[in-house]
Amino acid sequence: MTTWPPRPDQRRLPRAPRLVRAPRLPRAPRLVRAPRLRGARFAACCAAACAALALAGCGTQHAGLPGRAAPTRSPGPAAGSPRQRAVADAARIIASFPPPPGAIPSGRATSSLLRVPAEGPPATPDVVTATRWWTAPGQPVAVLAWIRAHVPAGFSLGGSGSGGYTPPAAVTPGSGSVQYPDLWFDQFSLPVVANVLTQRWLVVTVARHGSAQTAIRADAQVVWLPARPAAERIPPDARVVTVTPVFGLQPDKKLEPLDPAFTVTSPAKVAAIAAVIDRLALFPPGAFSCPADRGAQMRLTFRTGRGGPVVARVTAEYDGCGIVSVSIGGHSMPALSDYPSPGTSLQQRVLAIAGVQWPYRPGSGL
């Protein structure tokens, strides 16, 4: 946890720290930064991470929403380009925020603690935000509880927390410190729109404003996924595909022969494998916390026929963020994503179509 020990007369900080939550993943995390660069090997950008900038005294809870006294309908995504849909969605989300009784719009942050949201926005250029501020009578915890009970139906509570300060007098050697919260927040989510809107958040942050009022900040944060280039499709003249395993770091040499390379010559099966790849979404730009990448991959080489020219190459990670690298006609294309898979992984679908089994999963044991 990150704490800051200002003196009691320095309780108001110029910027409120923010809480960044990493996904709950079973393996050691790493940080992958994925700018939209053609030909970039995104997986090589990883570094051991999963660091969280935590608020002092913060805690995150994941639970369902309490009962709502007046359920209303949550905003739905609009039509248009991915960015236009994100802009419209952010406007609908912020408009759906339920101000508590007696709340007065302020047009700006009335507390220095609310100059930034307590969580987000994510580190990506493809994000739309919309912010509003209010002041309302009552104490922050009670005000936030009222808001939580009245958010529109469709939102789910993704996380909550608080931040505070530790006066020097509250630090006792050998017994830890006493922290005084002065900032609370809830983060609500709407379901994603597949291959278009990858994050739809409403972040509500509250802080004390005087002795009997609460300052409120509401942020809509919507991340859109740029449209996949039309040229990033397996060419229709691909008639043969060769599938090769790459076993990565510390492979078991005795088990490798269980997973031989193979070639698919059935036009129907080749077309089915190409269709699986063509349905993948772009890998979004930004910073992500991912499982460790051991270098295990499945490589697919598409040709016009046996011994014919290569028309496409595809490399799919087994671990990490599930990045799929694609080259069409010798030109590197934007990376695609197979993580998290909606069901079976890309590799499993390819093997199933080909009617082949690899008992030894590259990058792991049996």
Q: What characteristics describe this protein?
A:
366 residues; eight-stranded antiparallel β-sheet; 2 domains; 4 helices; 13% helix
Could you characterize what this model shows?
The protein has 366 residues and is an alpha+beta fold. The protein folds into two domains: 167 residues, no CATH class; 115 residues, no CATH class. It contains four helices and 19 strands. Strands 11, 12, 13, 15, 16, 17, 18 and 19 form an eight-stranded antiparallel sheet that branches. A six-stranded antiparallel sheet has the order 3-4-10-9-8-5. Helix 3 packs antiparallel against helix 4. The longest helix is centred in the N-terminal third of the chain and has 14 residues. The N terminus is likely disordered.
Record the SSE blueprint:
Layout: E1 29-33, E2 47-48, H1 82-95, E3 104-105, E4 127-137, H2 140-150, E5 156-165, E6 171-172, E7 176-177, E8 180-189, E9 197-209, E10 213-224, E11 240-246, E12 262-264, H3 267-278, E13 281-282, E14 287-291, E15 297-303, E16 310-317, E17 323-328, E18 331-332, E19 336-337, H4 346-354
Antiparallel strand pairs: 1-2, 1-14, 3-4, 4-10, 5-8, 6-7, 8-9, 9-10, 11-12, 11-15, 13-19, 15-16, 16-17, 17-18, 17-19
Helix pairs in contact: 3-4
